[in-house]
Each structure stands twice: as C-alpha cells, then as structure tokens.
UniProtKB/TrEMBL annotation:
It is a multi-pass membrane protein. Signal peptide: none annotated. This is Cation transporter. InterPro entries: Cation/H_exchanger_TM (IPR006153). Pfam families: Na_H_Exchanger. GO terms for molecular function: antiporter activity. Residues 15-434 form the Cation/H+ exchanger transmembrane domain. GO terms for biological process: proton transmembrane transport.
C-alpha cells in the first residue's frame, strides 16, 4: 500500500468521523464500532515498508498519544457537565450520589474482582492487580452514546439576565437525566483514580510484599496525589475563569471575544503544573474543566470551548480506533488464550454490572430527587461501563515502568476487552437509553 493510499484512507476516515455521529443516531450502531471495523479492514491490506503496529515496540508513542486523547476527553467532560458541585452544599453532594457510589464502591470492587479472577487463573499477583487496575476505569473517550451531550448555555442575547436567575436554574439543569450524568461524571473522575492501584501493582512487582510499601502508598499515592491534582485543577480553573469572564483588560476578556482556545490552554497548563507538583494530572484537568464550567454557568462561551474540545477529541479518537482496528488484524490478538476470553466476559457481563449494581442500590437515594436512580436506571448505569483508551494508556505507562513477562498477553487481553466493550455496549446503548428516556418522559407528562 503506497503513501497516497494512506492519504486516501485517512481522508475517507475523516469524512466518516464527521458524518457518522448524525447518520447513526437512529440505529444501534455507534461510530466507534464502524471505525474499529474499518481499521480491521485496513489492517488486512499490505502495509508500506517500515510500518508496523507492535504495541511493545511502539509503547512510548502509544502512551503519549493515548494520554493526550484522555486529557482532551476529560476537559470535554468537565465542560459538559451542567450539574453544579459546591463543596459546602450538602444538597450538591447528594445530587452527585451516583458518582460517589460508583467511585467508592464499584471501582474497587471491579479491581478486586478482576484481580482475584486473574490470580485464580494463574497470573502473578502483581500482574493480576495491574490487569484489574487498568480495566477498572470507564472511558470518557468511547462512551459518547451514554454520556451527556454538552453544556446547556444561552445565546448572547440572554447574557444580561440576573445572576440570581441563573443560579436558581442550576438545580433544574440535568436533573432528569441521572443515567447519563452518572456515567459521564464517573468517567471524568475514575480515569485519574485508577492511578493509585496501578502504582500498587508496580510496587508489588518491584518492591515485594505490601508490608514494605503500604503505608507510603496510602499516604501519598492514594491520598496526597489525589489532593494535589484536585487542588491544582480547581485553582487553575478558578484563576482562568476570573480572567476570562471578569478581567478589566480587554485582551484578557476571552469570554466576550469568544476565543475558545482557553480550553486547550487550561488543559495543558493544568496537566503540566499538576504533574510537576506530583499530583494526578488526569484529575486536575477534569477539576479544571468543572471549575471553569461553574463560572457564569449560562454564558455562551462554555459552548464555544466545548465545541473546540469535542472536535479535537473526535479527531484523536478516530486515529486511536483506526490504529487499534488495524493492529488487531496485524497480530495484536496473537497472544490471546482462554483466560483472556474468560476475564473479558466476566468483566463485561458479571464483575462491572454486579459491582455497579451493589454500589447503587444499597440505601439508594429517592428516585424523585437529583441523584436518585430507579432500579432500571441503576441497572443501566451498572452495565454501561465502557472500557477504552484509558486502559491502553495505563498499560503503556505500567509496562514502561517495569518489564512484565506477560506484557504481550496483557496487550492482547486489554485490546479484546476494549473491542468487546465497544461492540456490546454500542449495540445496546441506543435502544436501552431510548427506552429509559421514554419512561422518564411518560412519568413527567
């Protein structure tokens, strides 16, 4: 295949990325499904000389590209969430109840379930824990079909409305779509919260028994780095929002100018500062996006920023999916075995749904209140834990820190998990959420 053919295929893929989201709205087919299939087909064609897709050899490039993709998605999620979060407001904490439950219960249970299963199937403890950690986060990149669409904003003609009027509407925004809110907010936070457990697996592999490192891990990896990341993200978001929306200097009044590149500047600044200070950059970027979103909530500028991030995310996702599809038909799945199939099936059908269900139904919040889920909605949230790009990043990161003998098996297993999740969840997302929407509308009528 010549380089000109590569250009042609890339152009067709870009066109599909622009057309597919609208074209597939009515069907139980997601854009990731189509792009993965297209990538598999391209992978069957002869490749140009020197082009290879070995994940072990390309590990550094995979790590950086998937890192950027996840970061862009996290900023987009932070800007898209309409439901406000106020640190000192108990009502606000309660409205986020599904998110806290999924993070505090479902995620550790998922890690433990996969780790125990892997250990029982003969994996070394460190490898089993690593597999559970990298498969635990849900994905903000490939889960567009089950997430909120974007920020609800007002056009420029409405900007003169009183701040009190806008604040009074905060409680109404998004309160009737707790399923999409729960899945979106969970994906925004658990990509960063998987990091402590990845470190635990690395420590287990390099430092030995937990007794020699558990105390430091609890204090710094589990608590300290999370606190630093969230604090940096909130601080940078607050400062940039003050400048963009309230600066007296005309060049800095980015909101009035409608300059959307602030979102990208915020992403890069926040991630860089958080990593320099030792915090988790993924959490920092999400916190930054949420903080900026909380300023002048109804301003049209939020829509402009989210649109830029969304377009960049779509482009990056396109590349990831095409390359993943190509790699699958170029040997990525060569190291699969029956253990891989069993673990992936258990993750999607048993471990995540059961963990999510248990976390959401125990002393659940009244379904009539924001943050409350009916049983059918809780079941949907528990099931739609889409796996994706974040898992590729964590595997590339961990494998770069320590030479795991099972690395190729891990790449094959994680790739199978992502592809299976994309197709299973992609087929079911449209009909299930459409039915839940119809039930909600019927109750409200």
């Amino acid at each position: 295949m010549s380089i000109n053919a590569v250009y042609l295929i890339a152009g067709i893929a870009l066109l599909l990325a622009a057309v597919l989201p609208v074209a597939l709205e009515r069907y139980a087919i997601s854009a990731p499904m189509v792009l993965l299939t297209m990538g598999m087909g391209i992978g069957l064609l002869p490749m140009p000389d020197g082009l290879h897709l070995d994940p072990v050899e390309l590990r550094p490039q995979i790590q950086r590209f998937t890192e950027l993709t996840v970061l862009v998605a996290l900023m987009g999620v932070g800007l898209a969430l309409d439901r406000p979060f106020r640190l000192r407001d108990r009502t606000s904490w309660a409205a986020w109840s599904p998110t806290w439950r999924l993070l505090a219960l479902a995620m550790p249970l998922t890690i433990a379930g996969i780790a125990l299963l892997g250990w029982g199937l003969g994996l070394a403890p460190a490898v089993a824990l690593l597999l559970g950690s990298i498969l635990s986060p849900t994905d903000p990149v490939l889960a567009g079909d089950v997430q909120v669409g974007g920020p609800q904003v007002r056009d420029e003609a409405e900007q003169g409305r009183a701040i009190e009027d806008l604040a009074a509407e905060d409680a109404e925004i998004d309160e009737h779509d707790d399923v999409r809110f729960a899945l979106t907010s969970e994906a925004g936070l658990n990509d960063g919260l998987a990091f402590p457990f990845v470190y635990a697996a690395l420590f287990l592999a390099t430092l030995g028994p937990a007794s020699s490192w558990l105390g430091g891990w609890l204090a710094w990896e589990l608590v300290g780095k999370i606190a630093v990341g969230i604090a940096v993200g909130a601080a940078v978001g607050w400062a940039l929002a003050r400048v963009a929306f309230g600066s007296s200097s005309r060049p800095l009044q980015l909101a009035e100018q409608g300059e959307p590149l602030l979102a990208l500047a915020a992403l890069v600044m926040t991630y860089g500062l958080s990593e320099l200070l030792g915090g988790y950059g993924f959490l920092a970027v999400f916190a930054c996006g949420m903080t900026i979103r909380g300023a002048e909530r109804g301003h049209h500028y939020h829509g402009a920023m989210h649109e830029v991030i969304e377009r960049l995310e779509r482009l990056l996702t396109l590349v990831v999916l095409l390359l993943l599809g190509m790699a699958m038909t170029k040997g990525l799945l060569a190291d699969l075995d029956w253990r891989s199939a069993l673990i992936v099936a258990a993750l999607i059908v048993v471990v995540r749904p059961v963990a999510g269900w248990l976390s959401l139904v125990a002393r659940r919040r009244d379904a009539r209140l924001p943050g409350g889920l009916r049983r059918s909605e809780a079941l949907a949230v528990a099931f739609f834990g889409v796996r994706g790009v974040g898992s590729l990043y964590y595997l590339a990161y961990a494998a770069g820190q320590h030479a795991f003998a099972e690395e190729r098996w891990l790449w094959s297993t994680v790739a199978l998990a992502i592809v299976t999740s994309v197709f299973v969840h992609g087929v079911l997302a449209t009909p299930v959420l459409r039915r839940l929407d119809a039930r909600r509308e019927a109750r409200e009528s």
